[in-house]
Write a structure and sequence with these properties.
By secondary structure, the chain is mostly helical. The protein starts with a helix and ends with a helix.
Amino acid sequence: MKQDIVDIKAEQAVMKQDIVDIKAEISDIKAEQAVMKQDIVDIKAEISDIKAEQAVMKQDISDIKAEQRSLRLLVENDIRKQINIVAEGHFFIQKHFNEMHEMYVRYESLAINVQSLNSDMREVKRRLSMA
């Protein structure tokens, strides 16, 4: 019986040590749990910041889309008309330039003919004066 008591006391000592170890492990788990809770709080704060930034970005995208629509209308209504006016002006200028060039070529041709006729006239006058 004494041996049984000694065995029970030995087992009891081992159990006490196991309980101490379990309490230490529980304490470690509680400490880790506190760290995890703080991490969760930090993550929630970061998510909240991300959502706020996302709302700002959505507003920026909406503003950009509105500006794009405005620019598209400007291009369609104003700039295209101005380009057409400029193109018409260029066509008009090109047409007149071509006409002026044709007139200049005719003028040069006439000037050459006049010089030739003057030359011929001098020759006729020279021959008349010799005769």
